[in-house]
Fold:
Amino acid sequence: MPLAQIAARALPLVDLTDLTDDCTEAAIDALAAKAVTPHGAVAAVCVYPRFAAQAKRLLAGTGVKVATVVNFPDGGEDTEAVERETAAALADGADEIDLVMPYAAFMAGRHGFVETQIVRVKRLCGATTLKVILETGRLALPETIRAAADLALAAGADFIKTSTGKVEVNATPEAARIMLAAIRAAGSHAGFKAAGGVRTTAEAGVYLDLADDIMGPGWASPATMRFGASGLLGDLLAQLGTPTTDGDHKTY
Structure:
């Protein structure tokens, strides 16, 4: 598939992200300004909870959603704190919640605890989209990734997401294949998000090909597939004939 065609498919699937430790209000202004391009809008911006209200205000009327990370990035075990963080983000207008699953607890065999945390956060979210971050680079083994994906889907995840972008190994095609297969096997309407390390149109094309192969052509849409990325948008725009002038910057 020509790169321009891949770019046109991928652009509306982007969750344009700034999760840098030193993110500022000015950076969020700049992020929101990039969200609507000459070739259409991205799906969402993904920001820390403290910026959710600002992003919501800036993007009003654009159709671009505001996604907010919770329990980020370590996947902690204080479920009540995660619930408070989620409730505050929802009150500030977040359209989507990206929850880091307590993956260390999962790897220690505490699957019931992990399921309970996801269920409780989903209960707070209600109809608001909940994306559950598995942190597949830490889960590592295919069977562990599959078990985590199955658990998250059963607990009510609307999307399963590869990574925080904060560890050594983030999104990989191998993890994506496992996660997409879990969605298919569950007969689920849940979506898939590749996050961390997807920086070029060609890399995005690999994931789109996987989605086409496993879920069927036409499955990938903003309702079912996302790319969590910062630098990817610049390359997509370049392939579509609108190069950016400010340069890509890593915002994970």
User: Anything to note?
Assistant: The CA atoms of residues 230 and 250 lie 6 Å apart. Confidence is low (pLDDT under 50) at residues 247-252.
